[in-house]
TrEMBL record:
One of its GO terms (biological process) is spore germination. GO terms for cellular component: membrane. It comes from the Bacteria. It comes from Alkalicoccobacillus plakortidis. Gene3D superfamilies: Amino acid/polyamine transporter I. It is found in: Membrane. Belongs to the amino acid-polyamine-organocation (APC) superfamily. Spore germination protein (SGP) (TC 2.A.3.9) family. The chain crosses the membrane at residues 12-36, 42-63, 84-110, 116-138, 145-166, 186-207, 219-242, 271-296, 308-325, 337-356. Keywords: Germination, Membrane, Transmembrane, Transmembrane helix, Transport. Pfam families: Spore_permease. It is a multi-pass membrane protein. This is Spore gernimation protein GerB.
Amino acid sequence: MAQTPPNHLQVPAYMAFFLVHGAQFGVGVLGFSRYIAEIAGYQSWLAVIIAGAANQLIIWMIFKTIKRTQQPDLYMVNKTLFGKWLGSMMTILFSLYFATLAVVVLRTYIEIVQVWIYIELATWSIALAFLLVAYYAIIKGFRVIAGLTFLFSFLPLLLTPTIAPVLEYAEWYHLYPMMTTSFIDILKASFILTLSFAGAELIFVYYPFLQDKEKAQQYAHLGSLATTIAYLVITFLTFIYYSAEQLKLTIWPTLSAWKIASFVFIERVEYIGIAIWLLVIFPNIILTIWASSRLLKLQFRITHRKTVFFLLLLVFIATIQFTTRDAINMLNESINYIGPVFIFGFIPFLLVVSFIRKKKGGESA
């Protein structure tokens, strides 16, 4: 049975805000507005609100499921609700899902570095350097991971001055006329935002490490709200800056918008943005790999160092397999279909099963 970590290994309840927001706010920020605009046009800002509201519901479901089963984490929840064998299968699937999220984020960021800065730089070299640092952070424990997430969550604020040049060239008429897109298209656009909002489901794994669980839930909701607000701001800034034709031809709208920013002390602001984003995505990757490795540790009763090393090797091998733009596109599109299965399929299913079962807690045969 999974044991609740001692108090000195836990983090304060307010850290749930940064853990949720830090896991969600990552590489997807640089290009999500283009994809939702392709489906729902410039009214797709409504899709951001819908996706944010759905994410709030998922967070509530996670905490509710844990309370009903009276189990500390996803491993024990699966075992309690589905028994030894089916529960083990569910745990392994979630572990692979978290590892896949790490691959998607890492490979997408490496592509940005290769396109914008170092064209000839090998994928394996960036991935290896990044994952070696990630290994050091992960084996130091969850408190270190939470601390890094807290610290790096403030870094995007350094890029706030780049908003001014965008507003200077703003074309507000792009947002009109309002409410001309069908609700079905808006729902489809919100579906595409799955990758951008992925990360709240990690609560299922680090829940035992949170102090004052009731307050932690409130902070988790606030963290997701902060993500939604940030995405709304970025969406509006992108839409008022790019015309529909320009947005179709721009792969990373947020990143491209930084090119117009120029200050006395620095000319290429986008280089600074890419460098800062390396630290912004770091919590995305270490949190997902840590969660994946912890589930495997609980499932197979082996040391955390071994599971972390195995998963880092797996992530490294998977990352270097995607060598072309089409392959990376396929990887990102795949997670937009796989993600909803876990987030909007398995998580509500767990809650429904917890209501159906009369016996709460304990292990199934």
